[in-house]
Design a protein that fits this description.
Layout: H1 2-18, E1 23-24, H2 25-31, H3 33-36, H4 41-57, E2 63-66, E3 72-75, H5 90-102, H6 109-121, H7 148-157, E4 161-165, E5 174-186, E6 189-196, E7 201-206, E8 210-216, H8 231-238, E9 245-252, H9 257-262, E10 265-270, E11 273-280, H10 284-289, E12 295-299, H11 301-316
Antiparallel strand pairs: 1-3, 2-3, 4-5, 4-8, 5-6, 6-7, 9-11, 9-12, 10-11
Helix pairs in contact: 1-4, 5-6
Length: 317
């Protein structure tokens, strides 16, 4: 449905931009296949008015002109919809190039590359290489999860989705009905924030734990979308970043550097092990499980029990 609407809007925009005189509703309906397929005049009129408003919200300047016979026509003059000349200095071009390289491993790589090519054609200085690396570090945002693209489109189009989701402590996935709000990359993993219809509350889902296909649901959102979705803060609170206590763990020497960075105290135990004190908050068990046999939880007892439960769930799968 989203693709069909985008095609219809594009065709309408091309018609309005390509005409030298105002086109009436009748002429536009005869020129665009989707309008010809409208069941009735009322259906066409509603569709056309929505499309016209959507194009104006996207920035297209559409003029309404009445001819001598009183018939109303529409057109979008090219001079009114032409962007000003694009001027970028070397630093701005380098920043755009860096942003494009971040997405090299994602499905957005083609769009990012195409955007830079258009900037070059629009007058980007020839002596500026937007892909030139400025420094030894090259940032990347890896996107390997198949769920990323359908969820990104669902967030954009405000479409509810359903998918099978396996919690870290569960042996089998279960269906989740979600109104998606935003995607966030945190510690190399992608997370979705949204409204969980089954639980009637905000939830955060790690994309790597989504199994199977993400399916769209045609109904609209039932919960209000917050102005700012603080996915990163929510994930951080679930991953022990917002701590209200201290945990004591054993960590294999030469391993677990993210844990060492968070440690408030480190003591060498010998035999290839160190003892660390780290901040303890809700969800720390899910993070510790990722380090596998390199971590042994000493205390508190409830954290140790949670980690053991998660490991058992994985082993039973």
């Amino acid at each position: 449905m989203a693709i069909a609407k985008a095609e219809r809007l594009m065709n309408l925009a091309l018609c309005l931009l390509g005409t030298r005189r105002p086109l009436s509703k009748r002429e536009l309906r005869e020129s665009i296949e989707a309008y010809l397929e409208a069941g009735s005049d009322d259906s066409f009129n509603r569709m056309f008015e929505r499309d016209k408003d959507d194009l104006r919200e996207l920035g297209l300047v559409i003029e309404t002109v009445e001819n001598l016979d009183g018939e109303v026509g529409y057109l979008a003059r090219r001079d009114s919809n032409r962007l000003p000349p694009i001027t970028l200095d070397a630093e701005e071009a380098a920043a755009l190039g860096l942003a494009a390289k971040v997405w090299q491993q994602a499905r957005l790589a083609g769009a990012a590359s195409g955007a830079l090519q258009k900037l070059r054609a629009a007058g980007l200085p020839e002596d500026v290489d937007p892909y030139e690396a400025h420094g030894a570090l090259e940032p990347r945002i890896p996107v390997h999860e198949a769920a990323f693209e359908p969820l990104m489109l669902a967030c954009r189009d405000r479409r509810p989705v359903v998918f099978e989701y396996r919690k870290a402590s569960a042996a089998r996935p279960e269906p989740r009905h979600v109104e998606p709000w935003a995607l966030e990359c945190w510690r190399g993993h992608w997370y979705l924030a949204g409204w969980d219809r089954d639980r009637g509350a905000e939830r955060v889902f790690r994309l790597s734990r989504i199994t199977g296909r993400v399916r769209s649901r045609g109904t609209g959102f039932t919960a209000p979308v917050p102005d700012v979705v603080t996915v990163r803060e929510t994930v951080a609170s679930w991953a022990g970043e917002i701590a209200d206590g201290t945990a004591l763990i054993r960590l294999r020497s030469g391993a677990g550097y993210p844990l060492r960075a968070k440690a408030t105290a480190v003591r060498e135990l010998g035999d290839g092990w160190d003892e660390l004190e780290i901040p303890y908050g809700h969800g720390l068990d899910a993070w510790l499980v990722e380090f596998g046999p390199d971590v042994v939880v000493l205390e508190p007892a409830e954290l140790r029990a949670d980690v053991v439960d998660r490991l058992r769930a994985v082993a039973e799968d």
